[in-house]
Amino acid sequence: MDGQNVSFPNTFVLLGFSDHPWLEIPLSGVVLVSHILTLMGNSSIILLSLLEPRLQTPMYFFLDNLSMIDLCVTSTIVPQLLTNLLGPEKTISAWGCVTQVYIFSWAGSTECALLAVMAFDRYAAVCQPLRYAALMHPWACVWLAAACWSSGLANSLLQATLTILLPLCGRNTLDHFFCEVPALIKLACGDTTANDLALAMGAIPFGIVAPLVVLMSYSFIARAVLKLPSAAGRSKAFSTCSSHLLVVTLFYGPAIYMYLQPPANSTQAKFMSFFYCVITPVLNPLIYTLRNKDVKAAWRRILLTQDGRKSFKAR
Questions:
Q1: Strand partners for 125
Q2: pTM for the complete prediction?
Q3: pLDDT tens digit string along 250-276?
Q4: Using one digit for the tens of pLDDT, what is the confidence trace for 288-304?
């Protein structure tokens, strides 16, 4: 990172959406509102699960971890994106770029693993109800969450470090709105075989195994639910899984589109990344709040408790 080292610049130019300058002001408004809602929504879910004993279950424990991932992504990407959308300079410091590369890779990998664990949790709840307490014991949940975060960190350290060590020969213009591994690899002026191999190896657990676990879990869930004799039982089982299934679709849909079949048009890729970094962190808490009776009931209890305290003090 030395200033004399031309292989890694001191600053990077982020082209972002500069090829569509008329979009920058509207996008900045969307980004600002989404960022505020993301901070409020995900923080409230974490706070709610801490305050409400009825939400201290494995599903909400993993949901807290998902909210923390969303907060990491939006806090790392959005402030710099807002600065570049509203300001004349479209640059980011070298350390800022490195931070984005490491944290975004860590968060993305961790979320892949976490969604698979959450799918297994729903499988255990629906298909193994008598063994659920033993399978999803509190310490088992802690170890599963730790495995998600640590495996994501290991993948991030490998991918990001190999990318940062690439010679860039002074190239510093990224056709993106933030720094990520594939965008930096495109700038390299040396051999990227090791990076390509590392990406392929990393795609096996996070891009293939994790989605397969989700697919298998929901296949078993669907088979078990369809065997239920009552329509009410089937409806309750499907409603238990619908929120997570929708979040999985919102995550893996853009991810598969971006990384397994990258479009030739870079603008499309940037908008898919924009959806993941800006829009998805807003939708996740909304999905779990609006579609979940437990969360809505917990909010009502907390609000009624606050109103009761105010009325008591007024007396």
A1: none
A2: 0.89
A3: 888 777 666 655 555 677 778 888 998
A4: 776 677 777 777 777 77
